[in-house]
Amino acid sequence: MKFPEPLETGRLVRRYKRFLADVILDGGREITAHCPNTGAMLGCDHADARVWLSRSDSPSRKYPHTWELVKTRGGTVVGIHTGRTNALVAEALAQDRIPELAGYRKVQREVRMEAMKSRLDFLLDEGPGPACYLEVKNVTAAVEEGVALFPDAVSARAARHARDLAMLVRAGHRAVLCFCVQRDDVDVVRPADDIDPEYGRALRIAVASGVEVLAYRCRVSPMEIVLAEPVSVDLD
Question: Is 55 a residue whose pLDDT tops 90?
């Protein structure tokens, strides 16, 4: 996924009210940007961090800038825009770069089953096997070397999605959860049990029910983000 326009650069002053961040652009002007990430952003929002922002010319935008990337204290560039996640996975699906999900010719977005309270991200059909329900989760947090965590804040929605996937498997469907890790310095994804123990329980029950879990890390740069290599998922 290439950014359509060059990103602007600056230094983070502070993030606040979850959706806002004050940034000093490289030219010296201080602006308020939209922060498209509702999580705690552990390790990704320290003051004076190098950040990259996109800009919209839409007259309806109160804050034209959107925070896209940040460089951590360890030097890793991380994508923090959760709204990019499904596009990254959709691009990889179209190019058959996720072997476990390759070969499906029909990809439907935002699907709902009658018995479910929420939508799932994808329904893959007309492929080598049965139709597959796919839910994608964005991962940014990594507080131990090489280990990414999800979620980084309590997420009742994520736990509900895990239960929905388990329900689909029990009904005879194929269901997959994919962690999209928008950084390239991790080798494993773990449920953040200390932050959201209910999600950890729901995920483990889903896996025991037959839900498949995948995780892929991304190559992130100010020019593009690409879903790249698989990493392991540790539920122990």
Answer: yes
